[in-house]
């Protein structure tokens, strides 16, 4: 597993970097409005009525942004947790822990693709 | 011609009491302020993983239809969700300030065709992009445009 992770290291780092930068940039506005402003009543819920939310999310740009909001944070999260695991547990279990975390990111990314395709 | 000297040729026959002990990580290594900030930066990974899951849940509900979407959106009013999103916002700002303000200005490729920019310029560009994307997305989602 360790060898496999080393082989895919450039791809993993690319996705991690994208998650760290683009994921952070996209998530900030999303969390501000969808996670906080609408639930707290600062912004009326009509702003994201089903018809409007579907219209925003179902075009090409909307689907790409939505996929970025789903997949990129998963890769940032998986890679950072792997680093944290190495810091606390050393390299001994890195293959298993890293493999499991990236598997979660892969499954989540595929799930994200399915979610935006069926919109 | 004499061969290369043995690396231990000058070492004492018996290891003395004054010999330097091998380096060991102190048990409280994670408590140092600099290390704690670094570990917190890594721990935001948990928040990002969960945040990606929440967005997936919303996208899936949107694909299922109006009822599922309304239920998912209503669910975000749960205090636990609001608390989670507050923690997420703090994490995003922490990651952004640390990564965009401290790390990225030092991570420019050197020796390539692109000029190495002053750290202030890099910070201004990245923070500007972050602010612009956040404002645009927030305005769209809040119903300000489109």
Q: Which tags fit this structure?
A:
heterodimer; A: about 120 residues; mainly alpha; 3 helical TM bundles of succinate and fumarate reductases; 5 helices; B: mainly alpha; 4 helices; about 60% helix; elongated
Give the arrangement of secondary structure elements.
The complex is a heterodimer of chains A (119) and B (146).
Chain A: H1 2-7, H2 9-37, H3 50-57, H4 60-89, H5 94-117
Chain B: H1 33-64, H2 66-75, H3 79-103, H4 119-141
Helix pairs in contact in B: 1-2, 1-3, 3-4
Question: Can you walk me through this structure?
Answer:
The complex is a heterodimer of chains A (about 120) and B (about 150). By secondary structure, chain A is mainly alpha-helical. Helix content of chain A is about 80%, strand content about 0%. Chain A has a single domain, classed as 3 helical TM bundles of succinate and fumarate reductases, CATH 1.20.1300.10. Chain A has helices at about 1-5, 10-35, 50-55, 60-90, 95-115. In chain A, helix 2 (about 10-35) packs across helix 4 and helix 4 packs antiparallel against helix 5 (about 95-115). The longest helix of chain A has 30 residues, at about 60-90. Chain B is mainly α and about 150 residues long. Chain B has a single domain (about 30-140), classed as Up-down Bundle (3 helical TM bundles of succinate and fumarate reductases). Chain B is built from four helices and no strands. Chain B has helices at about 35-65, 65-75, 80-105, 120-140. The radius of gyration of chain B is 26 Å and the shape is elongated. The model of chain B has no long low-confidence stretch (mean pLDDT about 90). At the A-B interface, helix 2, helix 3, helix 4 and helix 5 of A face helix 1, helix 2, helix 3 and helix 4 of B.
What proportion of the residues of chain A is helical, as a percent range? Answer: over 70%
Major β-sheet of chain A, in short? none
CATH superfamily of chain B: Fumarate reductase/succinate dehydrogenase, transmembrane subunit
CATH topology of chain A: 3 helical TM bundles of succinate and fumarate reductases
What oligomeric state do the depicted chains represent?
heterodimer
Overall structural class of chain B, as computed from helix and strand content, comes to mainly alpha
- C-alpha geometry of chain A: elongated
Number of domains of chain B: 1
CATH domain class of chain B? Mainly Alpha
Strand content of chain B: under 5%
